[in-house]
Write a structure and sequence with these properties.
heterodimer; A: mainly beta; four-stranded antiparallel β-sheet; 0% helix; globular; B: mainly beta; seven-stranded mixed β-sheet; 11 strands
Chain lengths: 111, 118
């Protein structure tokens, strides 16, 4: 699986958009980009995933660059409950796919 | 998505003893995994729990230290054997179903078991 690089920490004001970047320059053509988050003392929670196109769901939007070497997770209106470690993971989509977690980004939403 | 529960939620154990962690999923899943998260660190995959056969271990993890059982599609156990303080971690169970083709199947996680070894 391709390696990802994320900033170790970010702050965001409550109510503003949180934009979390991820670099995955060695991503291969059949690898997806997955985002998970881990709120303190809880297990990781799936947020969103994508292959080439931008994706949006009720939690977030995922913007993937045309060359697929980087992506941005957008939380449109961050709340205090969005404070968590956010993990960007790159990997295949097969049934045997394993999630390999990097160090992630600690997002702190400030009141 | 399915809900995973783990027992115990936390424990404090003495060096040299063993602890078995139980993982129960509220629906059948194809894949089950065990992860370890050391204090302040990210998650590390220990093994894939295979139903009816031996688990598949990642590099650095061995069956004698972390025996795993998976008797059916909703239950698995992880035993941490002959514990030392270095085994103090959060142990997380994870599950995923498998669809056809390249369809994505969400991988979901239990709340974790916080283990402290004295």
């Amino acid at each position: 699986d391709a390696k990802t690089t994320q900033p170790p920490s970010m702050d965001c004001a409550e109510g503003r958009a949180a934009n979390l970047p991820c670099n995955h320059s060695t991503i291969s053509g059949n690898e997806y980009v997955y985002w998970y988050r881990q709120i303190h003392s809880q297990g990781p929670q799936y947020i969103i995933h994508g292959l080439k196109n931008n994706e949006t769901n009720e939690m977030a939007s995922l913007i993937i660059t045309e060359d697929r070497k980087s992506s941005t997770l957008i939380l449109p209106h961050a709340t205090l409950r969005d404070t968590a470690v956010y993990y960007c993971i790159v990997g295949g989509s097969g049934s045997a796919r394993q999630l390999t977690f990097g160090s992630g980004t600690q997002l702190t939403v400030l009141p | 998505s399915a809900v995973i529960s783990q027992k115990p939620s936390r424990d404090i154990c003495q060096r040299g003893t063993s602890l078995t962690i139980q993982c129960q999923v509220d629906s059948q899943v194809t894949m089950m995994f065990w992860y370890r998260q050391q204090p302040g660190q990210s998650l590390t995959l220990i093994a894939t729990a295979n139903q009816g056969s031996e688990a598949t271990y990642e590099s650095g993890f061995v069956i004698d230290k972390f025996p795993i059982s998976r008797p059916n599609l909703t239950f698995s156990t992880l035993t941490v054997s002959n514990m030392s303080p270095e085994d103090s971690s959060i142990y997380l169970c994870s599950g995923r179903t498998s669809g056809s083709g390249l369809s994505y199947n969400e991988q979901f996680f239990g709340p974790g078991t916080r283990l402290t070894v004295l």
